[in-house]
């Protein structure tokens, strides 16, 4: 378990709200996030807990700007120590930050039929500002650390198994550590050996100062990785505190999908 560094937050979320209009159901509005506020500091791993429908994945997507927030602020500290409100940036500005300073790893890999495993990981490194040679070297290292053998490097991602896709997704997301890493069930489809490799990689990132905001559906991963836990229910934060205070209050059903 890593130790958070007492310093300026990398992420400062203030009163974040996200509503959805259900156009196919009478145009009614459903609120997925209600005035959510918290911070994440460098080297801190904040785990999001809560049952299905609590708003965990919606929160990650609103921060990453897959979803446009309805209201509130999402302040992100850049590498030059200035801050920007992600909720108000233009799409091109968000894309630029995603490429270099904000990473997102989900349980799903978007299959690209004409893209090989190694090529996908290399392209992820290049998008973070690396040259092709360095991206290839680090990409190969990431793939090996996640037990993706060389016989798969030239295989198209569309033919991989679920667990293989998830490991490639992790390798691409972690090839060049971002300042902020968003994780949405990144190890859910992995067998015990590969899950252990992925957890070790994530743990190393927090020790390197990466701020991590993650959703895991098992208490063991939270216990091993998190420094802070935010518990959500129906789009609201109902508890927030250090892992040693919050974890004993949780049950397996509190983190199930």
From TrEMBL:
One of its GO terms (biological process) is organic phosphonate catabolic process. InterPro entries: AAA+_ATPase, ABC_transporter-like_ATP-bd, ABC_transporter-like_CS, P-loop_NTPase. GO terms for molecular function: ATP binding; ATP hydrolysis activity. Keywords: ATP-binding, Nucleotide-binding. The keyword ATP-binding applies. It comes from freshwater metagenome. The keyword Protein biosynthesis does not apply. Residues 11-257 form the ABC transporter domain. This is Phosphonate metabolism protein PhnL.
């Amino acid at each position: 378990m890593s130790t958070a560094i007492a310093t300026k937050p990398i992420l400062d979320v203030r009163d974040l709200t996200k509503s959805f209009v259900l156009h196919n159901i009478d145009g009614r509005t459903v609120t997925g996030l209600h005035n959510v506020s918290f911070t994440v500091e460098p080297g801190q791993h904040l785990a999001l807990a809560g049952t299905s429908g609590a708003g965990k994945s919606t929160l990650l997507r609103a921060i990453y700007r897959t979803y446009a927030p309805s209201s509130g602020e999402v302040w992100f500290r850049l590498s030059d120590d200035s801050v920007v409100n992600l909720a108000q940036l233009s799409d091109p500005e968000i894309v630029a930050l995603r490429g270099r300073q904000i990473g997102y790893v989900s349980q799903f890999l978007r299959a690209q039929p004409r893209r090989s495993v190694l090529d996908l990981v290399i392209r992820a490194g290049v998008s973070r500002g690396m040259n092709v040679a360095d991206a290839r070297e680090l990409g190969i290292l990431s793939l090996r650390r996640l037990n993706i053998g060389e016989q798969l490097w030239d295989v198209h991602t569309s033919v991989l198994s679920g667990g293989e896709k998830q490991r490639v997704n992790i390798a691409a997301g972690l090839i060049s550590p971002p300042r902020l890493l968003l994780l949405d069930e990144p190890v859910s489809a992995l067998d015990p050996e590969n899950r252990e490799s992925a957890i070790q990689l994530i743990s190393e990132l927090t020790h390197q100062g990466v701020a991590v905001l993650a959703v895991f559906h098992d208490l063991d991963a939270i216990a091993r990785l998190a420094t802070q836990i935010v518990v959500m229910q129906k789009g609201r934060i109902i508890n927030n505190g250090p892992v040693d205070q919050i974890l004993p209050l949780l049950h397996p059903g509190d983190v199930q999908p």
